[in-house]
Amino acid sequence: QVQLVESGGGSVQAGGSLILSCAASGSIFRPNVMGWYRQAPGKQRELVASMTSGSNTNYADSAKGRFTISRDNAKNTVYLQMNSLKPEDTAVYYCNLRPLTSLSDYWGQGTQVTVSS
């Protein structure tokens, strides 16, 4: 079993920055992908950014140029640096871990990010 614990959400004004962290513990298999998804009220959950244990990254178009994903494999932790935040970035952000050799899929509890104009 894998547990994901997120931290770093909060409220910020437009143009501000936040950094999210997600620490994974338990039986973590590699290679894997760790990433961030978000879900705004009334909308489907969507990928924000992901990064494999081999450091390959994938970003949503809305995140490119503003958000940076990074990870510390030794700590099983993934980060999301969010800059130039916009009100439309307001959502619950979820951490995800998916081993590439398994159908398992693990989610954190979510952390709220609110951007005011």
What is this structure's SSE topology?
Blueprint: E1 2-7, E2 10-13, E3 18-26, E4 32-39, E5 46-52, E6 57-59, E7 67-72, E8 77-82, E9 91-99, E10 106-107, E11 111-116
Parallel strand pairs: 2-11
Antiparallel strand pairs: 1-3, 3-8, 4-5, 4-9, 5-6, 7-8, 9-10, 9-11
Compact description:
Helices cover about 0% and strands about 55% of the residues. It is mostly beta strands. Strands 2, 4, 5, 6, 9, 10 and 11 form a 7-stranded mixed sheet that branches. A 4-stranded antiparallel sheet has the order 1-3-8-7, with no helix packed on it.
What does this structure look like?
With 117 residues, this protein is an all-beta fold. 0% of the residues lie in helices and 56% in strands. The protein is built from no helices and eleven strands. The strands form two sheets. Strands 2, 4, 5, 6, 9, 10 and 11 form a seven-stranded mixed beta sheet that branches. Strands 1-3-8-7 form a four-stranded antiparallel beta sheet, with no helix packed on it. The protein is globular.
